[in-house]
Amino acid sequence: MNLEENKRIKAAITAVGGYVPETILSNQDLEKMVDTNDAWITSRTGIKERRILKDNQKATSYLAIKAAENLLSKNAIDPTSLDLLIVATVTPDMPVAATAAYVASEIGATNAFAFDLNAACSGFLYGMSICASYIRSGQYKRILLIGADKMSSIVDYTDRTTCIIFGDGGGAVLFEPSPNEFGWEDEYLRSDGTERMSLSIKAGGSLYPTTQNTLDSGWHNIHQEGKVVFKFAVSEMANVAEKILVRNHLKGSDIDYLVPHQANKRIVDATAQRLNLSEEKVLMNISHYGNTTAATLPLLLNDFESKFTPGDKLIFAAFGGGFTWGAAYLTWAYKN
Ligand code: UT7
Question: In whole angstroms, what is the distance from residue 65 CA to residue 69 CA?
Answer without folding.
Answer: 6
